Amino acid sequence: MDNESAKVKIEDALGKETIVMFARCEVYYSGRAESFLAEGDRIIIIKQDRTLLIHQPKNSMPINYMKEETEYTITTDNKELRIKARNKKYKEDLEVIIRKMYFLKSKNLEDNQRLIIKGTERDMADMIMNNPKLISKEFKPLSREEHTKYGFIDVFGYDSKGNLIVIETKRYVGDLKAVSQLRRYVERIKAAKGIKNVKGILACPRITPNAEKMLHDFGFEYKRVLPPKYLENERRKQKKIFEFKK
Amino acid sequence: MDNESAKVKIEDALGKETIVMFARCEVYYSGRAESFLAEGDRIIIIKQDRTLLIHQPKNSMPINYMKEETEYTITTDNKELRIKARNKKYKEDLEVIIRKMYFLKSKNLEDNQRLIIKGTERDMADMIMNNPKLISKEFKPLSREEHTKYGFIDVFGYDSKGNLIVIETKRYVGDLKAVSQLRRYVERIKAAKGIKNVKGILACPRITPNAEKMLHDFGFEYKRVLPPKYLENERRKQKKIFEFKK
DNA sequence: GGGGAGAGATGCCGC
DNA sequence: GCGGCATTTCTCCCC
After folding, report:
1. Which among B66, B26, B53, B49 is positioned nearest to B109, based on CA atoms?
2. Contacts of A244 in chain B (CB under 8 A)
3. Measured between alpha carbons, how far is A209 from A187 in angstroms, rounded to an integer?
4. Confidence (pTM)
5. Which of B25, B49, B58 to mutate to test the interface with A (most CBs of A within 10 A)?
6. What are the residue ranges spanned by the domains of chain B?
7. Which of A112-121, A229-238, B48-57, B212-221 has the lowest mean pLDDT?
8. What is the three-class DSSP state of B108?
9. Region A219-228: what's the mean pLDDT?
10. How far is CA A157 from the centre of its chain?
11. Rounded mean pLDDT of A157-169?
């Protein structure tokens, strides 16, 4: 395909059809950072919302990209096709210099579906609210997403001894960051209420050794809790996979 | 294209060529979480390293995906083409049920280039190491990436009054997390060295109000520092963009 | 729009 | 492999 035809095709499709190209190109980016990618073969996608994605033939992340509502200027001569992309909102500029267009295709795609997802940290906190015994027999939950100046508490409550309880949940591994987060909330609650009997609990399936050490240094507790999806997996181990489908 | 031909094309290209499809499909995923995506038009990509990407016609993130080294099983009948993807390492499964294959293309792409990038947090810390006056006239840097049990310190040093200095850098906005991080390091240094005269400095272009409050609560300092790329931008404001293109 | 935090985060580096 | 952490993070929610 010659450069002039490619230019026309892209301009006609922009904002109406999703465009996919295989092309040999180099890429310049300037915005939140600055980057340069030397010549190589890539997949270039311009979506219907004017999102730009440039993918190398390996790895899952795009090597360069621009967000939705980007403006495009296409220029061409005998040797090159240049796609200049500018996003005013994010103050970003990107230029693709295409040295060889192997292939270009565009099509209007219709898709208004949203992903339905289960097994998130939110589900985990909800599970604890609904079944506080997962933390302990004494735990009484009060609220979810309690707002403090120093952030939001996942689950907030008290126990039979009159202690306030701050719970931070993690769906996978509790790490140093999670302990820091918990500490911030516990101290904020102590300061805000002017009391000292506030306990911190980190609820997650696993914890790193350093995080556990730090947790104990500050007098907090680790409570092993599995996210809801694992429980479901337990229940249907004998059943076949994907049975959750709707 | 009939399902049987598509199946053969995909099987032939797998691991050798990058495959791009426009297809009407639904998607099931089970692994770290579980998800379902009802029928719609999407771009499906299988890269040469067996990475799978499914993109809707809007937004920059893939709606579903599988990592490199995924194994594929393609099955078909008159009505559907099913792509079953399994990743043993990450214990993830995904299934794409294609109801309409609009288009399929594959090609071997050659690309061994790596992105050259400037203006990262690492560059910012390096800049402070090389030009400590950006922090203050008294600051003397000692090391980058100093390791402690509670994490790595971006820039570590001392001042003319004999205080140790811990600097945490952020390339954009300093937030509560950044202050927590700084605090962790300062306390760790105090504990490890058994001393009290350790100062914490958060070096970044901007800081959130709550973070600034927390910073002052703990006796730390905010030092406004711009990442190197902004400085370069200043220098070449009159020049045309993309001149950095090395 | 800013602030705060999760994400099927991913990717990088170090041990 | 795990740990710790930045990311052109992105996305969502709430004020």
Report:
1. B49
2. 30, 34, 36
3. 23
4. 0.93
5. B58
6. 3-107, 121-230
7. A229-238
8. coil
9. 94
10. 29
11. 96
Among B140, B185, B139, residue whose Cα is nearest residue B166: B185
Structure tokens belonging to residue A185: 């909330």
Instruction: Supply A159's token pair.
Output: 């126990």
B152 at A interface, C-beta within 8 A: no
pLDDT of residue A227: 86
Taking the C1' atom of every nucleotide in all shown strands and the CA of B115, the nearest one is D8
No. of H helices and E strands in chain A? 5, 15
Residues of chain B short of pLDDT 70, as ranges, are 230-246
Do the Cβ atoms of B20 and A40 come within 8 Å? no
In one letter, which amino acid is A160?
S
State which amino acid sits at residue A26: E
Q: Does residue B173 belong to the interface with chain A, where contact is any CB pair within 8 Å?
A: no
Half-sphere exposure of B233 (CA within 13 A, CB side): 14
Torsion-angle region of A50 (φ positive above 0: left; ψ -120 to 50: alpha; else: beta): left
Pairing between β-strand B164-169 and β-strand B198-204 as defined by DSSP bridges: parallel
Tokens of B219: 């006796």
Amino acid sitting at position A190: K
Q: Which residues of B touch A65 (CB under 8 A)?
A: 60
Minimum Cα–Cα distance from B229: chain A residue: A33
Sign of CA dihedral B182, B187, B193, B196: positive
Dump pLDDT digits (tens) for A1-53: 899 999 999 999 999 999 999 999 999 999 999 999 999 999 999 999 999 99
The angle, 0 to 180 degrees and rounded to 10, between the axes of the packed helices A176-193 and A209-217 is 20
| CATH class of this structure's domain A3-107 | mainly beta
CATH domain A121-230 topology: Trna Endonuclease; Chain: A, domain 1 (3.40.1350)
For A164, the token pair is: 């306030």
User: Residue A65 has what pLDDT?
Assistant: 98
